[in-house]
Model the fold of this input.
Amino acid sequence: MRSILLIYTGGTIGMIQDEETGLLKPFDFDYLSNEIPELKKLDYQITTICFDTPIDSSDMQPETWGKIAKIIENNYAQNDGFVILHGSDTMAYTASALSFMLERLSKPVILTGSQLPIGIIRTDAKENLLTAIEIAAAKHPDNSPVIKEVAVYFEYHLYRGNRTTKISAQQFDAFASPNYPPLAEAGVHIDYAFEYLKPLNENFNSFNVFYNLKNTVASIKLYPGIRKENIECLLSVPHLQAVVFETFGSGNGFTAPWFLEVLKKFENQNILIVNKTQCLSGKVEQGKYATSSYFTKVNALSAGDMTFEATITKLMYLLGKYSSVSKVREQFLMNISGELSS
Done:
């Protein structure tokens, strides 16, 4: 029998409505089958680990990602797959972070949640949870797992975790993967896009968890009218090692001389400069237009077609892993875990 571990961190999916007060409250996952009787029809061994105090995903921190990763590490050998129940607001950040932290992963780690609590009649939680479990348990005829990476399942679509971003606060179809196709679509059958799935890692027996993320990263979104002082204030942030500039179009900024002056100040302080487009889809093409020329003059790193969530968490991972700035620069430009197109 296939063994699936559910990890409940918090979020809307784990809420029910109190019959007396009408208020939403977390429910006891020991009684999960009472809320979702369909679970009994699944021929899997399902166990559950809950955070002692469920947290809203808006309170998710790198330390919490480490806590989730530790649970996976401690239970890795005895389980075929993992389903993480998580609030939707920062799910893409957690999925991206785990995709880097869970090195040489060879089992499915599926994040899911819902827009409505599990105790609400019209909830999307049941379908999301049931299908996420099915995906986490899916095997090839040779008994190898179909999914061998961190992924997000939401509203009939499975996406690569570090390619997702939340696009709606109200629609059930709350996530998108703008620059990478869905890994699967769930209808009458679950149709896997096998050509887009990560292959089995050759070093699958050397699974490792990297915990030492460094949050010495900042970001600033460019907009017409932004003042020089708004950007310069980041120079006074203690221990800052990288700053992500959210730029226009294919990686464009300003041609005003003051902008180059500020960028050079970051470069002179050995702060990595990353050029990330504000656009939901597409990629940075640094140097294509004159308006991106200043970024090339300060050796800015292109985020390519990475999501903002993947860009931030990848920097945290690399800055924690390597003390050499040149090594961080080299690795940032490489596709580490499927987050970046070539």
Summary: The longest strand covers residues 2-8. The longest helix spans residues 308-321.
